[in-house]
Amino acid sequence: MNSSKACRNAGVVGSIVVVAVGLAPVARAAVCYVDGSRECECGTSGCVCDGAEWETAYRTLQEAIAGSCTDIRVAEGTYRPTGETDRSVSFLLETGVTILGGFPAGGGDMEERNPDRYVTILTGDLNDDDSPGGGNAENSYHVVNASGASAASVLDGFTITGGNADGDPAEPLYGDRGGGILVVSGAPTIRKCVIRGNAAGAYGGGLAVARSGAPPVIEDCLFENNTAGVEGGSIHVAGCPGQGDCEDHNVCTYADCVGSSCTYDETLAYGDVNGSGGPVDIFDLLCVLDGFAGVFIVCPQDNLDIVPCNSGDPPTGGDRRIDIFDVLSVLDAFGGTFACDCPAAPKVRYAGGSPKSQGAARRAKMIASDIEVQFVARDGDIGKGETTVLDAFAEHVENFRGYQLRLSADGGVPIAAFVDAERSDFVFAGREFRHKSDPRVHRIVAALLEGEVTTASRVYLGTFVVRANQGGGGTMEVRVHPDDGMILVDPTGRVHNAPMPEQAEVTVR
């Protein structure tokens, strides 16, 4: 398992065994060796401790980390981040680096490696006085710092002890958490380690994880006798409480709580609050309108709380309320405006599909409907390259809450679309509603904040401007676009299975 179980069981003082499915070993370009018990190899030309082989191994782990090593093998013994008194110095686990402990003193091959027998200790006890009667006030804030480390970073086969993160949370950064191991915005693999006897003033005496997308993988590790002043004596993972916290941390879309960390789903787009993975549409608008009214049947509340947004990567935001600003942000996303440099919605396709709105049929339940939609050209006879205006109307409207419309034209091209909400025959006249146009592909959306409309009168839905092609003449045929060109919904978000309207024909001279 991953660190999720550890997170659920972490207390102020903890003793935990974590066994997880980890990552496969990664091939390394440069192997370096560390053996603190070995003297440098000396000859007539001087002494050599270049880490290239066991016979010339580095004396300290920091030398290997500072070098070009990507596969570091460490012999049994005790290693400190520094030989001086700077508490801010840690062993850094960098991206793409594997550090293996558990080799015998003097060196050995992989078959001889045994971390249980050849104990390899990384300690923050800089003064070597943590025995009974000693103190840890001078100990390193973090024994290991794996911040920014990727999934290709591995720490394997060490005992990590003596960290004391009793500093200020800002100076050094996160100085009050992660005495044993600190991971900020990283996802390393930590395998076959004993994390014992570490402390933190606030969180995660043994291990603290913060601002990580994919969580670290903790495999076959023992957490023992670690303490923290607030919570997470063994392990503390920011965002651990659950899915809701993760979703509210990402203004661009929403995130999933995986392994007790929040993951950022880059496949989704700002405003896609229902997580369909497609372009922002009427269903996203309905979700945020329902949330505005306190209804969260389709979309969880935290998916909808997307503004205000703050800087960050990814941006964070939300104010624990669903208000008009969230509604307007989804409408803006429909129209191609995206907050905080968030990713745009996937492109709306220009071709494909079928006369029926198959995308809508996949996303929502269909209900039988007698609603009839018509497109009426104000000028049915135009010259080449000239424009005509078409109005969309509906008759036999029943249980109607919102709609999305888009046209295509044979012999011409749509150039504008809008809703004239001031018209007396507008379907939502006199009601509270929201609407938006998408200037990229000339589609419109409109929906009631709540409730429905039922009327026998012919009602206005929207207006489209279409330009005839310059070449040729004859007839320009205007019809519903095959990709979700007509979606009519009831108050529960079900799609009216209305007949497709007849194409409008415009003569081109």
Q: What brief labels describe this structure?
A:
509 residues; mainly beta; Type 1 dockerin domain; Immunoglobulin-like; 3 domains; 8-stranded mixed beta sheet; 7-stranded mixed beta sheet; 40 strands; disordered N terminus
Please provide a written account of the structure:
- By secondary structure, the protein is mainly β.
- The protein has three domains: 3-237, no CATH class; 267-341, Type 1 dockerin domain (Orthogonal Bundle), CATH 1.10.1330; 358-508, Immunoglobulin-like.
- Helices cover 10% and strands 34% of the residues.
- The protein is built from seven helices and 40 strands.
- Strands 1, 6, 9, 12, 13, 16, 17 and 20 form an eight-stranded mixed beta sheet that branches. Strands 28, 31, 33, 34, 37, 38 and 40 form a seven-stranded mixed beta sheet that branches.
- Helix 4 (282-292) packs antiparallel against helix 6 (324-334).
- The radius of gyration is 32 Å and the shape is elongated.
Structural class: mainly beta
Principal-axis shape equals elongated
CA gyration radius, whole angstroms: 32 Å
Gap from first CA to last CA: 71 Å
The low-pLDDT segments are 1-29, 239-251, 347-363
Q: Provide the helix percentage.
A: under 10%
Mean pLDDT: 80
Topology, number of strands: 40
Task: Report a brief summary of the structure.
The chain is mostly beta strands.
